[in-house]
Amino acid sequence: MISIRPRRPDDLPACVTVLRQVHLADGYPQNWPADPAAWLATPALRSAWVGAQGEVVAGHVSLFELPDGSDLPSLAGRSDLLLLSRLFVAPDRRGDGLAWRLLRLATEQAGSLGQRAVLEVEDGAAAAIRLYERAGWRLLARRPGRWLDRNGQHPMVRVYLAGVTPPAG
Asked: Looking at the domain assignment, is residue 169 inside a domain?
């Protein structure tokens, strides 16, 4: 059974290993970070969790403060937002609902802080988009992302806002 717990500093190497597997399988993140551990633990980090079986990490999710100058509050029509990001599950651990459980936990945690979760997802990430839409997240916009892809282009992203109460499941 995979349990979910707060991420510990000693989980970062295992998280990086799983992230690399996801990058190779799915192209997420689109650009491999120069320092993947720092990418997972940026200063804007509020909370992070892992799904693990014993000490073996199978998945990850984080909540971040919005970056300075973010247009997400204007898109959402509210300022009480946390950015849900770095949601990934090892390719060989998919299909048992871990991504759903991580998404729900982070959404509930944002709510318990009196905030709502918002996220951006690359337009081609069909499985992730299905997950967010099944979970009741509301599409706010489609627009170019803030980063450049391998071709030097801004990829199209979808911006989603979490519902007030995530559906059971």
From this structure: no
